[in-house]
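Table 4 source record.
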Amino acid sequence: MRGANTALGAAGLAAFLLLAEAVPRLGLVEEDYFPPAGRIADALGTELTDGAFWTALGDTLTGWALGLAIAVGAGIVAGVVLSVVPYLREATASTVEFLRPIPSVALIPLAVLLYGTELESVLLLVVYASFWQVLIQVLYGVQDVDPVAEETARSYGLGTWARVRHVLWPTALPYVMTGVRLAAAVALILAVTAELVVGAPGLGARIAVAQTSQAVPEMYALIVVAGLLGLLINVGARSVERRALAWHQSVRGEVAV
């Protein structure tokens, strides 16, 4: 089954590349705005030999990794604290529901005002967007804890943090891993967006330079790199999720299938 899915995915990718090559060649769109896939591939090859490209890629990955790490750590700690401290979740519910829907891009003027085009601007946007993905999943995970297991742990005299470790955490971990996977994708989107709009060093800034200089094939090549980076991050996050949840029924059932 997995081999068949891989073959179908490869066939779909090949068909897409052929379509991307044929559409501009047939004159259905202007090559100045959408060059053939072959020209984009040539531009990508040129980018891969440019040291500045690798520096920009490193800047993007740095902002993504640091922002994601901060968001995941803060989201897990905040979610656990809000869940185990009596009445704290109810007291903060309205604040969470007010802050969570605010689009991260709306904070771009604040980020520029505080940090200019430095890495901190990227981190501010990445952390804010990714934090909510993790926090909400942790809160949902804690809600799913079996009340009987919780009461049993209390009856055996387990303290708060012992209950967190042995009862709450195993139940919440699948939710946490889902939040981390979502946050990883959101963090990349915000990192590239911040670089593109703010001008912080990275792939986004390089895409903006290519666009303003009318280097259209190079611009598409960099967009392809961003897409491939997102694909690799998603595959990596799913791999980590499977390893972390190897004991969980959802993953065991997936492996069995």
